[in-house]
Amino acid sequence: MTTAQTTTSTRGARIEARDLTKTFGAFKAVDTLSFEVEPGRITGFLGPNGAGKTTTLRMLLGLIHPTAGSATIDGQKYHDLDHPQSIVGSALEATNFHPGRSGRDHLRVLAAAGGLPDSRVDELLELTGIPAAARKRAGEYSMGMRQRLGLAAALLGDPRVLILDEPSNGLDPEGIRWLRGFLRHLSNEGKTILVSSHLLQEVEQTVDDVVIIANGRMVRSGAMSELRGAPSTIVRTSDPAQLAGALRVADVLAQPGDDGELIVETTDKRLVGDVALRAGLPIWELRDRKADLEALFFELTEGTNRNLGDGNAVPTATAPTTHAPHETDAISGQEGANE
Amino acid sequence: MGAAIKSEFRKFFTTRLWWGMAIGIFVSAALFSGFFGWALTSDDITADQTGVEGSATQIVNSVYTGGLSVGYLLMLTVGIMQIGSEYRHKTITSTFLSTPKRVTAMFAKIVALLGIGAVYGLISLLGSVSVGAMVLSLRDIDPFPSTEVLRTLALSLLALGLWALIGLGVGILIPNQVAAILVGVGVAWIIEPLLGFGLSFVDALQGVVPYLPSQATNAMVNGVTQSGVEVKPLSWWAAALVLAAYAAALSAFGTWRTVRQDIS
Ligand SMILES: Nc1ncnc2c1ncn2[C@@H]1O[C@H](COP(=O)(O)OP(=O)(O)O)[C@@H](O)[C@H]1O
Ligand SMILES: [Mg+2]
Questions:
Q1: Band of residue B228 on the pLDDT scale cut at 50, 70, 90
Q2: In terms of CB atoms within 10 Å, which of A50, A169, A254, A315 comes out highest?
Q3: Helix/strand number for chain A, H first, E second
């Protein structure tokens, strides 16, 4: 065990969830959810509030017993890890501190459980940028300081996997920027990172992969670049059809878009400009086409949110736990929601 | 295991609770032993009037453990809070994340609470023996009439630790910390002694009275007894076993329940 650990400690480890299911009474919070988180990548675990993200992460971490299915980290159940802090670090909620205990003492309590020295505690306080607050009672911390303390706790054992539940909640824009850079830095060290959020925009610049769930079920998973779609360019001109023809001659495909736009399947704006010039067409606008991720995310998730009130006439409201096909029919690229 | 125990001790000694309790235990031990040292040895009050009877050793035992009944209520509270504050502030999540084998985590709590009980026991003895011995000496009474007194002092440490474990069980049974403290202390301080008092008048049920936790605690330290009471206390070792059985049952139940719980 120890030797295996030292040789692989710099590499990330794989997280695997298979058919995870959790019911609270008659309510299916998580429904046969399967996904994998690849080593060394940052994966966004996304879904609207109430989708089942926290419940899923708590099942990964052995805090909630799954009704069915299983979850492993580096091939082992969390419960069976001998030195969990050196394999997995996690920060679940920013409120998990005794208000009368100082931030440093909170970390010392955890360090003791992991057999780690106090010097490691001070290192982490420094790294997460809260050394000045270390001796203050945690009850006096701002939300941002609590998030940083939670992150410090997660990193104590220099884990290979990091699991963070909504870490940017309550952070100001400066804090969010800091977090983004920090996660990048950790990922570059080779750590596997799973980070949940109810906002796709919040993590889209940070994550490599996404796992999107709604109503406890998978609606989409894959690389972020896939979700964005192939990059393309929008051009406006006096005669879109003529420009499309000229581009086709140059081996570039183009389709008409809204409002007289032409969507060109390339990122090479110079090529588009040159072709237009040769065709004698004016260019009124030439820009990158960005996938509207916000709209996509909404389409994937909110349209069927079981947690919204009656005003939102959702067909699933009466039967949130059935495998109603209409919930997912409209969604492309869906994986794993139904067997 | 050792790491988890160390973590539990740190948990306890890194909040203000511990020294508040320490002051409470020290002061109550000192006050009660001073008071008993004076009251139980007053020449002008004969044994008949106070209704108290006991040997010289028993009197000294009573003086040194005079604060024990307050002490064990405080330890009950400490036990409740060692788990209750984890539920309340949701630190139970980080406890089980750093020690995912919950039986180990709970066993660490049990060991730590026994240790904490002993620490507070020493603090309490510091107060009671210093003040008690002084008062007894002033009255020209031998403050250490026999080695049995040492046994009593040692058992009072154990009693405090065991009451902390009873608290642990209560804290798991009633997850709301404030409710657990109110119910736990209310039952141990008022209801259970009244029950024992009432039962001692019922011939058929008299036999169970010595097995009640407060009665067993008092029997452990072998102090003076009220004359005229028919119920005979248990011997010190039987009483210790009875109290240990309560502690074991409650903490085992708590562990079993915690292992099955979802932490959300
Ligand atoms: N202990 C519980 N008992 C009953 N319902 C719960 C419990 N925990 C979560 N839920 C419900 O399960 C659903 C998923 O919750 P959660 O996992 O917290 O979602 P998310 O983290 O995605 O916002 C919610 O509808 C929530 O109300
Ligand atoms: Mg959540």
A1: low
A2: A254
A3: 13, 13
